[in-house]
Amino acid sequence: MDFPLIAFYVFAAFAIAAALGVISARNPVYAVLSLVLTFFSTACLWILAEAEFLGIALVLVYVGAVMVLFLFVVMMLDINIAPLREGFARYLPVGIVVAVVMFAEMLTLIGVLAGRVSTEMSAVDPAAAAGLSNIEWIGRTLFSAYLMPFEVAAVILTVALIAAMMLTLRRREGTKHQDPGSQVRVRSGDRVRLVKMAAQPRRTTRTGASVETAGAGGEGSK
Predict the structure, then answer these.
(1) What is the predicted pLDDT for the residue at 116?
(2) What is the largest CA-CA distance in the chain?
(3) In whole angstroms, what is the distance from residue 128 CA to residue 30 CA?
(4) Residue 180: CB partners within 8 Å, gap ≥ 6?
(5) Where are the beta strands (DSSP E) in 77-209?
(6) Region (Disordered): which ranges (predicted)?
């Protein structure tokens, strides 16, 4: 069994273990950290399989962007997040373990790529046959031979995004909506009004002394 095959099994084991941690962890912070490790291990598998574009896209898009969105959604949920914000030290061990595993996977991947000779790449691979890297071959092919399908897919995704926004922002009875235009045009005079109240009449206490009380615009005397 050669070293790349051993690295493949190691990356796959970490990806499966981290994926199980995502669905079994009751703490959302632990689940997010496990998901980060799952994405990173899967990206290492793609790079090991000579699909560098998929691996880099997985790291940049999912680990760098989607995970931020997940954290934002977790913080927006109607849950008691006070215990999550307190005690940063208790999340530190899990974070250190995830960081150490990711660093070890990076070193292993670098060792595999350094020991791989370009002539050993499969001749069936069109990128290897053209003498180009995987990313360069995908870029040239995508924007030359498959430019029209690429543009059509972009239009479909844009239409889907606009439709999702329209369905979310549609007017429904019993829901509250905000009017950004009215909020921008608001003035302080429309929100705050100063009222001057007249003094209240005298009243008699139990001791027989008369007390005069005043409102917001008057003065009280005894």
Answers:
(1) 59
(2) 109
(3) 40
(4) none
(5) 202-204
(6) 198-222
CA distance 65 to 2: 35
- Is the distance from CB of 37 to CB of 14 less than 8 angstroms? yes
Residue type, 138: I
* Residue 159 dihedral angles phi and psi, to the nearest 5°: -60, -40
Rounded CA-CA distance 31/93 in Å is 14
Lowest mean pLDDT among 9-13, 98-102, 125-129: 125-129
Q: How far apart are CA 62 and CA 40, in angstroms?
A: 9
How is residue 201 written in tokens?
A: 């009449």
Residue 153 half-sphere exposure, CB side, CA atoms within 13 Å? 7
Q: Is residue 183 a contact partner of residue 202, using CB atoms and an 8 Å limit?
A: no
List, in order, residues 6 or more apart from 201 with CB less than 8 Å away: 212
